[in-house]
């Protein structure tokens, strides 16, 4: 009888594959996905085997952990992609799935909630893989587009309000709504479609904030941390600082010093383009904006003209307040310039300042701010010279 010598090899390979898969799975589950950055009161994490452990500052959070706060508890965790989730009092959330690789569309952040009050701020994953950033509740699923939102969930009802960014989607088997206006939200009852978006009332916002902010016992078990997010609801962090001039798109590798009149060729006109980070504030709701700008600097006449274009111009209030497509007029002084921000109605609503960098003014960056009818906008800009016209 001929012996099949390949059979033991196949069996050994299958056993090795199973063992490798088991080890890989166990290894993935052992990796921390988030860290506690703030908490009050009693807060615990329950792993998938049912074992509970108390949480304290800098405690690690793992995939499949069920996070729980008591009647005085509050918790804030920071994920590796810089997403932030806040749990209010008497809240439970499971980290159902998390894996992130920078720039990968296969990244996932899925959380599951039964009851409680929460705030979610998307990090890098909300930009890389927004389709995989979801919170599941008994009545509907919340999807993120790179945004911030707060919500209260029970087994019978979900109330969620959009607080800034590009928008959120709320959906179940019976319907879907998209919300892109800060301060607007929806309510979803069990076995019903999401209600059409509507502006949340002061009472609705107050109830959410009371659950998130509360009067938790800061001296309780594991208490500690800076809970600024609890004391400043309905806001988002300020836009990030512009990178050094050498890190702006297309800028040279060597950092530039400030330009001076002595080295600027006053016979040319330079055209500059670049990006904007800004905040739009209305009724204490802060919306982060991005955009682009175009400047034309005439170094002979010492004048600058241009325009600022902010994203989210589909929100009609931006046009009404002159935030979209504002014009700028200013006069350079040495290496810097100052001027005015002008609304679409040609009224001055703010100021515009900046400076040129490089031996031939290759780079420009600065800031602007404005206010009209109780609404404010402020931001920073930076970019490079794209065209030079010799006069």
Automatic annotation (TrEMBL):
Coiled-coil regions listed in the entry: none
Pfam families: FecR, TbpB_B_D
Keyword tags: Signal
Nucleus listed as a keyword: no
Region (Disordered): 211-237
Signal peptide region: 1-28
Residue intervals of the FecR protein domain: 66-161
Gene3D superfamilies: 2.40.160.90
Segments of skewed composition (Gly residues): 217-226
TM annotation in the entry: none
Entries under PROSITE patterns matching the protein: PROKAR_LIPOPROTEIN (PS51257)
Domain Transferrin-binding protein B C-lobe/N-lobe beta-barrel: 283-385
PANTHER family per the UniProt record, alphabetical: FECR PROTEIN DOMAIN-CONTAINING PROTEIN (PTHR38731:SF1), LIPL45-RELATED LIPOPROTEIN-RELATED (PTHR38731)
Name the record gives this protein: FecR domain-containing protein
Organism of provenance: Thiovibrio frasassiensis
């Amino acid at each position: 009888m001929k012996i099949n010598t390949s059979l033991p090899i196949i069996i050994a390979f299958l056993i090795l594959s199973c063992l490798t898969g088991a080890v890989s799975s166990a290894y993935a589950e052992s990796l921390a996905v988030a860290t506690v950055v703030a908490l009050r009161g009693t807060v615990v994490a329950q792993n998938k085997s049912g074992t509970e452990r108390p949480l304290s500052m800098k405690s690690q959070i793992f995939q499949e952990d069920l996070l729980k706060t008591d009647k005085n508890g509050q918790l804030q965790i920071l994920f590796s992609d810089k997403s932030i989730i806040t749990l209010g009092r008497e809240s439970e959330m499971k980290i159902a799935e998390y894996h992130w690789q920078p720039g990968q569309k296969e990244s996932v952040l899925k959380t599951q909630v039964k009851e409680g009050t929460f705030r979610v701020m998307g990090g890098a994953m909300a930009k890389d893989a927004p389709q995989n950033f979801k919170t599941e509740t008994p009545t509907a699923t919340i999807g993120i587009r790179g945004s911030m939102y707060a919500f209260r969930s029970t087994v019978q009802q979900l109330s969620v309000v959009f607080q800034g960014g590009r928008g959120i989607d709320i959906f179940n088997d019976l319907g879907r709504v998209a919300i892109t206006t800060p301060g607007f939200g929806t309510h979803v009852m069990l076995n019903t479609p999401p209600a059409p978006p509507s502006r949340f009332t002061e009472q609705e916002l107050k109830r959410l904030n009371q659950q998130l902010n509360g009067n938790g016992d800061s001296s309780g078990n594991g208490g500690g941390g800076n809970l600024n997010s609890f004391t400043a609801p309905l806001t988002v962090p300020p836009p990030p600082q512009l990178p050094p001039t050498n890190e702006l798109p297309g800028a040279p590798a060597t950092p530039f010093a400030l330009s001076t009149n002595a080295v600027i060729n006053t016979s040319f006109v330079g055209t500059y383009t670049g990006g904007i980070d800004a905040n739009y504030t209305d009724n204490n709701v802060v919306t982060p904006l991005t955009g682009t700008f175009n400047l034309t600097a005439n170094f002979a006449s010492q004048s600058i003209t241009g325009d600022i274009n902010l994203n989210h111009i589909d929100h009609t209030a931006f046009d009404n307040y002159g935030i979209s497509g504002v014009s700028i007029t200013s006069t350079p002084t040495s290496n810097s310039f100052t001027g005015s921000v002008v609304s679409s109605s040609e009224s001055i609503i703010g100021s515009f300042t900046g400076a040129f960098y490089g031996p031939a003014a290759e780079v420009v960056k600065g800031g602007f701010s404005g206010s009209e009818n109780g609404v404010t906008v402020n931001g920073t800009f930076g970019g490079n010279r794209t065209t030079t016209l010799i006069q």
